[in-house]
Design brief:
The complex is a heterodimer. By secondary structure, chain A is mainly α. Chain A contains eleven helices and no strands. The longest helix of chain B is centred in the C-terminal third of the chain and has 38 residues. The chains are: A mainly alpha, B mainly alpha. The interface between A and B is large, with 49 and 47 residues.
């Protein structure tokens, strides 16, 4: 935020410099320390490996990206709906909200195998896992954001004759948006994890599939290529959500 | 008074909705005659837990051992790193991008590498938990340690307090709420990561049981393992909520 104010040049140059420095350091350490490539391959070897499996990697990225996005969008929408419902209908909150919290201590990924049975070995089962991981933080934050609205403001609007719908659209929902945005940023990361783990339970294409295959063949360079790819995908998805957030929640610049 | 209120507002609704949910689940399974591989009834799962308790008990203890060891190490590493970054600001400027880059990668993507590097014993699971937990703790602790206002820090400094003293008397207490918050997120994550890592290869543990049971198409066993691990992580979570109330009483 401050860096951007000091000039766009610095905002770009600093992270870029760090990335280049990390790449050089990686290459130097891996070559200089003479560690076996089986344990820690140099970056150049990793990039060569990524190039070699390029087309498959590209298809996998596309597949995992699709699963993540579908799970995220449906999960976030459902989460916002649930959060709003909980905030507006208090008996519903009393009855269901504790169950939501309890449900999150369940290791969801353990259900992977069951979800494949329920939804078939299709893209849908991965989307369902990503959906499940996303909707909870969004529900919780929508709920708490809606409740955190200053009651005096609500009373003020009511005094001016605002309807319940107006209070919702003009006050409560906008006031909850910054809190919801925090959950969305968390949700996109969780959604990606859900998609990758979902693929472990059986599929033919996807980053999770490639990770498992590389593990069974003990191809460490490919594992590193996949780790970098997962990181790039995760960072890009996060960046997209953050940019949208800054557009929509423009009045709050500190987040 | 406060206890009664807490039971009334939190425990009772939870108990009622839990009982209702289990009742509904049992009825639906019974009424529609749902097959076990689709969805076993709660009573069947309970029976499954009792039947295979010796195996499940050993497994859940192994998983708890990995999760808690990794959790403790992760807290220590995350907190020490956060204090170091606050004490030496240039270090933060240099290291933060590296840490952010490591954190960008979904943590499960490291699992295969951990298994190759450290073998399929407990070490690889503990390492994964450490990675997952230390980041949550680091980010939360950083935020907390930086919370004291500039004026309070300057005041202490004007009394001759060094950076270490300021850290101990001002920053660390101020960081407690967000630290405990990070621990609450971290404990659930620790269990999940330990189980996920076990599913990819292990000698024992809940994740291993789930993997084996899936291979043997024994879905009642899968459900029983999920039930036991859920109860275990719920208990850990409640312990931390309790710690939160006790330690961070000034919140």
């Amino acid at each position: 935020m401050n860096a951007a104010a000091r000039g766009p040049w610095r905002a770009v140059a600093l992270p870029l410099g760090t990335i280049v420095a990390m790449a050089v350091l990686w290459e130097a350490v891996a070559r200089g320390a003479n560690i076996s490539a089986h344990i820690f391959p140099p970056l150049s070897v990793v990039l060569q490996e990524a190039w070699k499996v390029g087309p498959f990697l590209a298809r996998s990225v596309l597949r995992t990206f699709t699963e993540t996005t579908l799970g995220f969008v449906t999960g976030a929408s459902f989460g916002i709906l649930c959060g709003v419902a909980f905030a507006l209908v208090r008996p519903l909150e009393r009855a269901l909200f504790p169950l939501f919290v309890v449900s999150q201590t369940i290791p969801v990924v353990a259900f992977g195998a069951l979800i494949i049975i329920w939804f078939g070995n299709t893209i849908l089962s991965k989307v369902v896992i990503a959906f499940y991981l996303t909707f909870f933080p969004v529900t919780v934050n929508t709920h708490s954001g809606m409740l955190a609205v200053d009651p005096q403001k609500i009373q003020l609007m009511r005094a001016f004759g605002a309807s319940a719908a107006q209070i919702f659209w003009k006050l409560r929902f906008p006031a909850a948006l910054p809190t919801i945005a925090v959950a969305l940023r968390l949700g996109i990361s969780l959604s990606l994890i859900g998609a990758i783990v979902g693929e472990w339970f059986g599929d033919t294409v996807g980053l999770g599939v490639m990770l498992i295959q590389a593990m069974y063949t003990e191809s460490v360079p490919r594992l590193w290529a996949l780790i970098i790819t997962c990181g790039l995908l995760g960072a890009s998805l996060y960046a997209v959500v953050a940019v949208i957030e800054r557009r929509v929640v423009w009045w709050r610049s500190d987040a | 008074m406060k206890n009664a209120e807490m039971i009334w507002h939190h425990v009772l609704p939870l108990a009622i909705s839990l009982v209702l949910l289990l009742g509904l689940w049992e009825t639906v399974v019974w009424y529609f005659d749902v097959q076990v591989f689709v969805l076993p009834s709660p009573s069947a799962i309970a029976a499954g837990v009792i039947d295979t308790w010796p195996v499940l008990q050993k497994a859940v203890l192994a998983t708890l051992n990995e999760a808690l060891t990794g959790f403790a190490l992760g807290i220590a590493i995350g907190l020490v790193l956060a204090m170091l970054l606050v004490l030496v600001p240039p270090l933060e400027a240099a290291l933060m991008p590296v840490l952010v880059a490591i954190n960008c990668v979904p943590v499960v993507a490291y699992t295969p590498l951990a298994l190759i590097w450290l073998g399929i014993g407990p070490a690889s699971k503990i390492a994964m938990v450490v990675i997952a937990v230390s980041f949550v703790i680091l980010l939360n602790a950083l935020q907390g340690l930086k919370r004291p206002e500039e004026e309070a820090i300057n005041l202490l400094r004007s009394f001759g307090a060094g950076p270490l003293r300021i850290m101990w008397t001002l920053r660390l207490p101020a960081a407690m709420p967000s630290l405990v918050n990070g621990m609450r997120v971290g404990i659930v994550r620790a269990m999940i990561i330990a189980i996920v890592s076990e599913m990819l290869g292990a000698y024992r543990g809940i994740g291993w049981i789930i993997f084996q049971a899936t291979q043997q198409v024994n879905f009642l066993q899968v459900w029983a393992a999920i039930a036991v691990s859920s109860v275990a992580s719920m208990i850990l979570y409640l312990v931390l909520v309790w710690v939160d109330r006790k330690i961070v009483w000034w919140k």
